[in-house]
Amino acid sequence: DDAALLVRGPVGLGLINGVGQLPRSRARQAVYERFAAAGFVFPPLVHPQAWAAPDAQLAEGVQLMAGAIVQPGCVIGANSTLNTRASIDHECDIGQHVHIAPGAVLC
User: Fold this and answer.
1) Alpha-carbon distance 53 to 22, whole Å?
2) Rounded to 5 degrees, what are φ and ψ at 66?
3) Hey, is 40 helix, strand or coil?
4) Which DSSP state fits 10?
5) What Å distances lie between residue 79 and 4, 8, 40, 87, 104, CA to CA?
6) For strand 63-64 and strand 75-76, is the pairing parallel, antiparallel, or unpaired?
7) What is the DSSP string of 62-77?
8) Distance (Å, whole) CA 95 – CA 104
9) Gap between the Cα atoms of 30 and 13, Å rounded
10) pLDDT of residue 73
11) What is the pLDDT along the chain (107 residues), one digit of tens a residue?
């Protein structure tokens, strides 16, 4: 329940945004913005079978799914998702609230 979460407060708690990304839907963004504005944090999540270069910048709420690859010099904006086997090549700059489709390759 959202109300119970807001009453509990953000101290010592990280959230995971489980809302899927649908075309022309802002539901995932709305959830992120609502709770971020209330002080909650969304740590970046990297699947054990995903890989991000040590110098890649993963903003709050980024989710790297299985097989995703983020090469050196890349910047991934807040609340963005790199879906299964997506590959972001050297020095790509991905904005906020972006969904990169499964198997997509950006370079």
Assistant:
1) 28
2) -55, 130
3) coil
4) S
5) 23, 22, 13, 17, 18
6) unpaired
7) -EE-TT-EE-TT-EE-
8) 16
9) 19
10) 97
11) 688 888 888 888 999 999 998 888 999 999 999 999 999 999 999 999 999 999 999 999 999 999 999 999 999 999 999 999 999 999 999 999 999 999 999 99
